[in-house]
């Protein structure tokens, strides 16, 4: 199918389908979805969740405390927002069941650049997927069921068509009442159309924004008289009224109110009656206008706090369903957000050196975390990301302890994803000859940007401290390991030898036996074995070597049973792999002649250097980045 046919097909699929009122009621009898509420249609559009038992995944089990969580494919790219999305879906689920939520405003509360607007856009997109039925030509797209009285017609409709009385809650619009009077009370004269909600045409979806505080009135929500029609109709005639307000256009759908609490309180009053009673008054002396939809609002915390602290607003506060949308607090999910943003830009194809996105994600996440007592904020960040720090940081607490001490407002302050992406844009374009990103340029751009932000002195010092105390030193380790890994040709064999020897020594140490080296004949007693093991453990900061040795040996014994008595690969056990890498990369002096970009003394050195660069390129660096990062690494090591 060509693109032209595809667009034509989509247009044809969403066109109105017309029918009589009798045909509509017969359809209701066969399919209850025909008269589904806006919340029910939203639930259908969201679809069934993917149920995940986090107990089966070590990382997820630490993050979610072994709970069973639900992830919705409709919100797949909203990374790290599981709680907020679950609350939003719960709101629609309860509203669809006819509970109190159907009378409440769904309110997204969160910091700037946290994803509130993106969530709102996604909900409007989902609302467009499922059609609804309305009276033909109705300016407020009202349900045909509004033509019936719940008290007088409810029992008949329920018996004959199976329509529950709870769906007969809306009043007839003034426009429909006038048409009914013109038709002498004959409701069969009304026609019914099937419509698809549309953001473009403002059918069952609308967007309202606060205007000038001095002249904004309720007409932005409820509509107003069209003065051009006053020549033909009286002022209180429905045909003289312009049903152009946000509530009018969003009936049977979703109305988004952007920055709601920036609007004057008098403008918000129609929202109360629209949600509580299912109708609202127009600006003229007509009857009430029906509203059976969802009101979605969002604003920043400062506006919410000011509104909440005003006691005059108590009636409104009770009608708001708050969903907090904090910043992402998990580094891995924050990286996924950057990757998604890059995919939507031309930078998608630009080279990005390993650890660049992760370093930026770590910095923005650190800025959002509340600094814990008696523990490192860097450890807290790693625990939040699902890492197990039992062996490397004895002062690290559990994720629940960190959350309890931080309180419910963690993630509502700090640097936004928007700020981070602007930093990323500058990093990619830092070098005038190559569009590419690397952590060294990132560190420089970050410091420059923080100085320009004019942050409070205490916050600025804290952020700079994160760069100098956590990011830069750990990147020295990371790039050192990358360089050394690319340098070591017999890397894998060397690592396996250390692994095998460590396991052998640990096994004899646990059994309290002496070990005789088969090559040298040297006899190692338990003390000597302990000293040899510590040479490998201490550089890696193993805090509880006794438990660590038992853990490693148990792992290897289990692995041997499945591997014909052979030791597993030295990289198969992540904890010990890190320890071995520390041991392997302790010396850097022999690297200098090979990784340096100075003129080489011999063809052999030149060949080794070219092989080193080739292996670095294979690991995801450009040749220019290899030179920059190698020289930066050598310079930093020399100054230490």
Written description of the protein model:
- With 640 residues, the chain is α/β, with parallel strands linked by helices.
- It is built from 27 helices and 16 strands.
- A five-stranded parallel beta sheet has the order 7-10-13-4-14. Strands 1-6-5 form a three-stranded antiparallel beta sheet. The protein has a two-stranded antiparallel sheet with strand order 2-3.
- Strand 15 (515-516) and strand 16 form a beta hairpin.
- The radius of gyration is 33 Å and the shape is elongated.
- The chain starts with a helix and ends with a helix.
Count of DSSP-assigned helices = 27
CA radius of gyration is 33 Å
**Beta fraction of the residues?**
5-15%
What strand order characterises the main sheet?
A: 7-10-13-4-14
The biggest beta sheet is recorded as: 5 strands, parallel
**Broad structural category:** alpha/beta
Tell me, what's the shape? elongated
State the total count of DSSP E strands: 16
The low-confidence runs, each spanning 5 or more residues with pLDDT under 50, are none
DSSP helix fraction = 40-55%
Average pLDDT taken over every residue? 87
What is the terminal-to-terminal distance? 64 Å
Essential attributes:
single chain; 640 residues; alpha/beta; five-stranded parallel sheet; elongated
């Amino acid at each position: 199918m060509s693109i032209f046919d595809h667009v034509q097909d989509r247009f044809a699929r969403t066109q109105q389908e017309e029918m009589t009122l009798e045909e509509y009621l017969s359809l209701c009898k066969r399919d209850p979805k025909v008269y589904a509420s806006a919340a029910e249609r939203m639930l259908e559009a969201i679809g069934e969740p993917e149920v995940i038992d986090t107990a089966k995944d070590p990382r997820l089990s630490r993050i979610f405390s072994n709970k069973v969580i639900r992830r919705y494919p409709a919100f797949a790219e909203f990374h790290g927002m599981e709680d907020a999305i679950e609350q939003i879906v719960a709101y629609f689920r309860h509203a669809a069941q006819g509970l109190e939520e159907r009378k409440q405003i769904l309110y997204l509360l969160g910091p700037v650049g946290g994803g509130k607007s993106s969530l709102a856009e996604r909900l409007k997109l989902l609302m467009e997927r499922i059609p609804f039925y309305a009276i033909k030509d109705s300016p407020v797209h009202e349900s045909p069921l509004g033509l019936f009285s719940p008290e007088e017609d409810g029992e008949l409709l329920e018996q004959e068509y199976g329509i529950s009385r709870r769906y007969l809650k809306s009043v007839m619009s003034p426009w429909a009442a006038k048409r009914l009077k013109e038709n002498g009370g004959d409701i069969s004269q009304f026609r019914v159309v099937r419509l698809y909600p549309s953001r473009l045409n403002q059918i069952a979806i609308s967007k309202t924004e606060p205007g000038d505080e001095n002249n904004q009135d309720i007409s932005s929500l409820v509509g107003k008289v069209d003065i051009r029609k006053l020549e033909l109709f009286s002022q209180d005639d429905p045909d003289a009224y312009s049903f152009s307000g946000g509530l009018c256009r969003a009936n049977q759908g979703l109305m988004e109110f952007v920055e709601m609490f920036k609007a004057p309180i008098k403008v918000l009053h129609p929202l109360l009656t629209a949600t509580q009673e299912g109708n609202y008054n127009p600006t003229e002396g007509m009857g009430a206008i029906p509203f059976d939809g969802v009101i979605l609002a969002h604003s920043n915390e400062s506006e919410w706090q000011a509104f909440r602290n005003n006691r005059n607003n108590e009636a409104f506060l009770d009608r708001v369903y708050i969903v907090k949308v904090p910043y992402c607090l998990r580094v891995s999910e924050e990286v996924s957000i950057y990757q998604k943003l890059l995919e939507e830009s031309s930078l998608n194809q630009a080279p990005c050196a390993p650890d660049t996105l992760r370093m930026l994600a770590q910095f923005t996440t650190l800025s959002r975390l509340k600094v814990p007592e008696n523990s490192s904020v860097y450890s807290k960040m790693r625990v939040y990301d699902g890492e197990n720090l039992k062996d490397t940081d004895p002062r690290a607490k559990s994720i629940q302890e960190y959350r309890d001490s931080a309180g419910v407002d963690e993630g509502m302050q700090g640097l936004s994803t928007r700020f981070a992406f602007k930093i990323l844009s500058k990093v990619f374009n830092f070098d005038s000859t190559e569009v590419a990103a690397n952590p060294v340029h990132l560190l420089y751009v970050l410091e420059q940007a923080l100085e320009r932000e004019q942050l409070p002195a205490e916050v600025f010092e804290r952020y700079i401290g994160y760069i100098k105390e956590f990011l830069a030193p750990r990147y020295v380790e990371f790039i050192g390991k990358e360089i050394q890994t690319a340098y070591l040709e017999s890397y894998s064999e060397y690592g396996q030898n250390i692994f095998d020897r460590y396991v052998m020594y640990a096994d004899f140490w646990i059994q309290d036996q002496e070990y005789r080296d088969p090559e040298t004949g040297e006899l190692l007693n338990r003390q000597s074995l302990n000293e040899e093991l510590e040479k490998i453990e201490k550089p890696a900061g193993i805090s509880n070597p006794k438990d660590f040795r038992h853990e490693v040996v148990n792992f290897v014994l289990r692995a041997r049973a499945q591997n014909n008595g052979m030791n597993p690969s030295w990289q198969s056990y992540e904890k010990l792999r890190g320890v071995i890498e520390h041991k392997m990369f302790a010396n850097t002096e022999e690297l200098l002649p090979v990784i340096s970009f100075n003129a080489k003394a011999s063809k052999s050195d030149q060949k080794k250097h070219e092989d080193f660069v080739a292996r670095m390129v294979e690991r995801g660096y450009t040749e220019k980045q290899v030179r920059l990062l190698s020289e930066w690494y050598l310079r930093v090591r020399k100054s230490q």
